[in-house]
Amino acid sequence: xxxxxxxxxxxxxxxxxxxxxxxxxxxxxxxxxxxxxxxxxxxxxxxxxxxxxxxxxxxxxxxxxxxxxxxxxxxxxxxxxxxxxxxxxxxxxxxxxxxxxxxxxxxxxxxxxxxxxxxxxxxxxxxxxxxxxxxxxxxxxxxxxxxxxxxxxxxxxxxxxxxxxxxxxxxxxxxxxxxxxxxxxxxxxxxxxxxxxxxxxxxxxxxxxxxxxxxxxxxxxxxxxxxxxxxxxxxxxxxxxxxxxxxxxxxxxxxxxxxxxxxxxxxxxxxxxxxxxxxxxxxxxxxxxxxxxxxxxxxxxxxxxxxxxxxxxxxxxxxxxxxxxxxxxxxxxxxxxxx
Length: 339
Hints:
Elements: E1 2-14, H1 23-27, E2 29-47, E3 51-56, E4 61-66, H2 78-87, E5 92-99, H3 109-125, H4 131-145, H5 153-160, E6 163-169, E7 172-177, H6 182-191, E8 192-196, H7 203-215, H8 219-240, H9 244-258, H10 268-279, E9 284-287, E10 295-299, H11 305-314, E11 318-320, E12 330-334
Parallel strand pairs: 3-5
Antiparallel strand pairs: 1-2, 1-12, 2-5, 2-6, 3-4, 6-7, 8-10, 8-11, 9-10
Helix pairs in contact: 2-3, 2-4, 3-4, 3-5, 4-5, 8-9
């Protein structure tokens, strides 16, 4: 048999930063996000000889191991090794992985890769994991076991899929799926513009400084995080009531708050692209993820979107078409003859 899986990347509309410990444990966080039709993919072909071969298209790596080895965390395919350690490898296998967006792009790529691998191994090994357990394991692997800096939202978004309002209440995470009418989703897809700025970012450095500023209780950073959390609730209300112009304006307010977390969240290129988009009619937007590069999301008037897209591409941006994805991580299996 061949086992396959895919998990969707996500767009975070509001609340990002309030899911980064220790803020959610001390003050409670909230994030509004939705998954899109960009994915992390994986295929696994079991083998009986104890040999493991992992091919990552994203990093252009082919690595070979053996099931008897205690694989060290050494910076090479550590996400794969950690999933293998936690879920087991009863036999050898060949694993092929790739994603639709580069690491560091702000779409939650690394967390989605972990969720996807857990979904794949769950299918192969017939592990009875429910969605919350998948997301919790992915968080533990990435943030605690491997020590990769980041928040708590991405693992839950990739696992559950769709539009979600996710609350972080101490050590408890509550995923609230939002029932968004199809016509409203269509309108969002019609008016949202996603543009790759051409640069990935080193989110760990930004997050280190953000965490440090919060732990020092710097007033401006704490106030910005608190305001960002409140905006997540306001954006949810605007979305559920269909007030999309308010939704666009709140995105702008959220971006202004986010820039107060750390000076590296934006740069001259991002500021120029955002200012040009606003000048041409965009109601609001934000850089996705921790900031510093990656994808820029903009909410546009329907009759100005194409003009804004043209201007961003003149500024070396790359506009990317997308739709929303309502499903979370999925896995399936096929006969080896269906290749």
